[in-house]
Design goal:
By secondary structure, the chain is an all-alpha fold. The protein has six helices and no strands. The protein folds into two domains: 66 residues, Orthogonal Bundle (Arc Repressor Mutant, subunit A), CATH 1.10.10.10; 41 residues. The longest helix is centred in the last third of the chain and has 23 residues.
Length: 120
């Protein structure tokens, strides 16, 4: 799935879905590096540790997040659901373009059902 998203976006999504399972130290380093775009040296200074320790924390954190995704697949499922929803929405818009009241009403009903199922 990483090929669908750029690396930064993929890392951010992994953190959004699984970041709560990291230790506080891992969360802080990961947030500083990936979200706030701080350098290893800046993170090292902020956390009062060596640059090598930060690299190790980042490596372990990334491996953990990737492992969670491998086992749970929540990010992949989320992306897949978004693709399906976009496809359905495109098809509904095509149907509505026929300007037939029954078709338009049915399309709107489908949207309402999707909203109640997916919370959209």
């Amino acid at each position: 799935m990483a090929d669908i998203l750029d690396t930064r976006q993929h890392k951010n999504m992994l953190f959004d879905f699984y970041g709560g399972m990291l230790t506080d130290k891992q969360k802080k380093a990961y947030t500083l590096h990936t979200v706030e775009d701080c350098s290893i040296a800046e993170i090292s200074e902020e956390m009062g540790t060596t640059p090598q320790a930060v690299v190790d924390i980042m490596r372990r954190s990334t491996a953990q997040l990737e492992n969670y995704e491998k086992n749970l697949g929540l990010v992949s499922k989320h992306i897949f659901r978004q693709v399906i929803e976009e496809g359905i929405e495109n098809d509904l818009q095509k149907l509505e373009s026929f300007n037939q009241p029954q078709v338009t009403e049915t399309a709107q009903n489908i949207r309402r059902l999707m909203g109640s199922i997916y919370g959209i």
